[in-house]
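== Sequence, structure tokens ==
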Amino acid sequence: MKTKYLYSCMLLSLVLASGCIKDEGELLTIVRTDVDTSTVITEHRGYMKGVAERDEITTNFFDKVLNGSNQIEELNCYTGLKTNFKSLDAARNGGNVVRAGYVYSHTNKLPVISDTKDCKTTYVSNPNGSGAEVSFEGTLTKLDPNSTYFVRSFVVCEGDGKSDSVIYNNHVLEYKTVLPEDVWVQRNDAPSDLFSRADAFSCVQGESVYIYGGRNGSTRYSDLWRYNPNTDTWEQLGTFEAKAAHYVGTEKRSNGAMFAYPNITARDTLLYIVGGELSSGKYTGTVFIYSTERNRFANAGDHPNAGTMYPDYDEKGMPIYKTDEEGNIIEPKTPRMSNKSRAYVEDLPIYKKSGTGQKTNYGLAGAVAFTLSDNGFTKYFIAFGKNDLSTDGQKHVQTTVYEYDVMYDRTCNGINELSEWAWKSVQSGNDKDIEGFYQPVCVKCGDRVVIGSGETSRTGKDGVSRNFYTVSYSITEQSIRMEALPTNDAFTSGFKERANASAFYLNYVKDGAQYDRFYVGCGRTCKEENFIMEPEQLLNDFWCYDFNSRQWIRKADCSNVLRQGAVGFSVKRMDDVFVKKQFSVNLRGMFSFGEGYVPGEGFNSRKDNWEYIP
């Protein structure tokens, strides 16, 4: 099935090239050869003459080629052309015009039939004698979008029965096919061993995208994968070492947060995998790391503080001092230093004391990770989500924001574990009014962070929100600030409240105009506990907020899949098959994976990847 979209012609320039037919009134140079639709042309002198007008582009459009599930399989460009040859002296060659058509090339500025095997040809009526005129139209098919082509028309005149004369238009047309706009293109599906999943952890570091875990129904995963946008392929990375597994098990989980921390001293990047929901349905506050340089999980030696000496503490959390041979503390009191290995894992400081004075750790899920700049330094945060620390047994949406400081993330020595200090709660400006979210979107947009949608901490709503905020960090107040994004009539009337949506950011120049946009779409329209797998509870609409105009704009729906829990990200691509030379910054936005509904197929977890061309 094909759905055709017509666009205005995008002519870049017209090239006048020397060739087989001169301008009207000039002498002719003829190509004479044995020819049919597939043979290679050799040049000879001939005896034809005539005049060719400039070829005219009538249409320049692209087709979406859809499969049975209404998904895009191909994106092809087509060009419609109209041509007129006149004053043909067919009699001088002893024959008649028998066919006509077009030839084109990416590289040859004087294209001939040998340049393209599928050149469009048309049989025309046979004019007799001198002064014959031939007009015809044709279509060049399956061209690459946004690519330059050299095109010219030709006519073939029957010769002496053994050879024909091929006459090419002297006016070679140079033009560019259209660039598809506001369209989703399906990329390669994930490989068979990267199972379909929703609610995976994800982050972008450099040109790589990482995803960890996720769920397919109630089944959780613990594998880590990296997406290479240049080859459109996924690669599975390291597995848990035995000692690490002793501490964290296999940590099969979903619905958590992940961020990348550059360990500059080791020329390494650590991926921090934080919180999430276990197969049992319980939440976890466990944090562990993955070394991209060493391709392994949770090894203490990979941490930036590995080998650093810190004071020793006893089981009661009291410092241990240096002593002499008789056991007396050396004055002045000097702490005993140790370079014990840092713990393989740690927990977010979500605790509740029991009656015995011991602390029980609780978990966090549906949170987000982001970074903010502070006086030249990068600060790392985990925010919002739900924790299972409550007296009523319910899991409530939080407004808490945790800041991570690697300087305090070090050796653990007992009750007062120093690694707890690595995670501290950060006050938010106007705490009483702040809106927290469960399963929101969170996107770094240049020097801004946008957080929004999701199940809301506020009352008086139906459980999900359509509010979006830019998040900043106040150096003077040492607190998080949230400022609501403006709305407009289109957003107010069309954007539905949702949770578990997906989003990305694109900043690019197109046709000389600068675009600075936050994109968001898909998700579910109800709270997680109220989701009963009804199609109307899922969305596939797609929106952007333009920071320049401060307006919301409805864009093309993301395929025909209604989905939630997809991974959204933007990457740089080098293969410019769709956007060659059109964008100054070659960024692509993508939605991958998720849990969705397709008409005729029902509900299932997804492993498809979709790329957006703005």
Remarks:
- The chain is about 0% helix and 45% strand.
- The helical segments are 242-248, 489-494.
